[in-house]
Amino acid sequence: MRVFATTSERGLNHELLPMRLYHKAKRLGIWDPKELDFTKDREDWKTFTPSEQDWILKICSLFQAGEEAVTRDLLPLIRVAASEGRLEEEMYLTTFLFEEAKHVESFRRFFDEVAEYRGDLAGYHKENYRKIFYEYLPQAMERLIHDPSPEAQAEASVTYNMIVEGVLAETGYYAFYNALAKQGKMPGLIKLVDYLKRDESRHIGYGTYLLSRLIAEHDTVWKTINKRMGELLPYAIGVINELLGDEKPYPFGLEPDDFVQYASKQFQIRMDVLERAKGRPVDEIYGISEQEVGVLS
Ligand SMILES: [Fe+2]
Ligand SMILES: [Fe+2]
């Protein structure tokens, strides 16, 4: 017979990290993409050289398709949480998907209202980007529909939360700040990046929690995680190089080495946090602090 958590003795566990993230998301995840002010961005846009405009179109097109991909591909993971009766995780994931939808909306506003670009942007998606967003990510997420095993969950979360959100998106914000924020350009777009960074810190925090829980619960999962991280890192570095392009000098004085280093550092931070879950009691993972998984306030 069906048992409802909230009409049984179980109730809701507000101490679980996903539940704390849920409460945080209700406060911090409610900004409205329609309220982003792009007035100065439209003026700044006209002052950029064609190659600067091209680079901004490129980075925004990588983000745009990336946000659409994570919106479209998240459902199977939510379904796994629901079918395992992890109500608190499912509740948190409703905010997660809502936020990704808003990220999609926000970047499209940039193309429609600032760049006024209606053409096809998929040409900016090069080999490494396509590997991750056109193949690895959807395949790993779709696998969960038929195979909700701990290994499949780990592979999905590494691809989605650690590589796409944890390494690529984080390095992308760094690029926006270095290229535009430092010169006081495109304040609407930078405000969006501030919001993204905060939302994504909860998403990555959830992924870190999920992977830590899987590591603590199943001895075999660490091997899967380690293998997948290693498999995807070269593609992630490839995407960073594709973002910078071959044209020298690089737009806005950006330096590829600096970015590859930053991405590698992000990768190492994720690995270090996950390592700590090995042999840790599951109860301790449930109560892991927001600070330990890098959630921003
Ligand atoms: Fe996002
Ligand atoms: Fe996200």
Write the layout of secondary structure elements.
Blueprint: H1 17-28, H2 39-47, H3 50-73, H4 75-83, H5 87-114, H6 127-146, H7 150-179, H8 187-217, H9 221-244, H10 256-275, H11 282-286
Helix pairs in contact: 1-5, 1-8, 3-5, 3-6, 3-7, 4-5, 4-6, 5-8, 6-7, 6-9, 7-8, 7-9, 7-10, 8-10, 9-10
Bound molecules: fe (ii) ion (2 copies).
Which runs of at least 5 residues are low in confidence (pLDDT < 50)? none
H/E order of the elements? HHHHHHHHHHH
Which architecture per CATH? Orthogonal Bundle
Helix share bin: over 70%
Class computed from helices, strands and strand pairing: mainly alpha
Strand content: under 5%
Ligand set: fe (ii) ion
CATH class: Mainly Alpha
Q: What is the count of DSSP helices, taking H or I runs of 4+ residues?
A: 11
Distance between the termini: 41 Å
Largest sheet: none
Average pLDDT? 96
Q: What is the total domain count?
A: 1
Shape: globular
CATH superfamily: Ribonucleotide Reductase, subunit A
Give the number of DSSP strands: 0
Keywords, separated by commas or semicolons:
mainly alpha, Ribonucleotide Reductase, subunit A, binds fe (ii) ion
Can you put this structure into words, describing what you see?
This protein is an all-alpha fold. It has a single domain (16-25, 36-280), classed as Ribonucleotide Reductase, subunit A. Helix content is 71%, strand content 0%. α5 runs antiparallel to α8. It is globular, with a radius of gyration of 19 Å. The model has no long low-confidence stretch (mean pLDDT 96). One fe (ii) ion (FE2) binds at residues 70, 100, 165, 200, 203.
